[in-house]
Fold:
Amino acid sequence: MNENESGFMWGNFPLGYGHTSIAYLKNCFGYEDARNGNILAAQYVVRRCVKPKRLAKFRKRFAGAFVVPVISGKNALPTALANETGLKLWDKVYRIDTVKRKQLPAIKRLQHKPVFRGAVKRGAKYVIVDDVITQGGTVVALRNYILSNGGKVVAVMALAYSIGSYHIAPTREKYVRLFLKFGSSIFWMQDVGLISSFEEMTNSQARYLLMFSSTRRIHKKLAEMAIVE
Structure:
């Protein structure tokens, strides 16, 4: 994978490493069992999906880094993928909130920030591993937690990504477009919890916000979701 040189606030953060499509992953035999905590099923699914040559290059490039899986609920796939990388496993960080983000509309996923707890080794390098990445909100929340506790996140790997989500770090172009489109009213997005800061968002999250014609339209969407709730 090439460096994402445009992820300027994240310091030349690489594109996300992936292996297969979401459709292939979800149709893989044993997928639901793996999501429900079956370790053997998770190992089987991961080995069916990973690209060995890509994995070998990844292992060589990030040798010495810890691999930290997104530990959330029963899902065994992130840990199985983490073990498959061959890097040193760091399973001391885990998610403590119970919001099922994949069941939320995109606008609500921006508001519901995952919460993590656990030990982080200061000065150590970490690679975040998950099964599927869409907006990347869980990944960025885990990254922020690791950074705030003295670690450094050097890469992200997932079995599959939604279209365009390989660009984890937000690009300079996205920041410029956000400010040109919304002006100073963009800070309202922080007030309502859509973003914590511009560094603490992903490229896909920025792309999603740019789909709205104005902050008024975003406000209307949030109001509609509140009525549904």
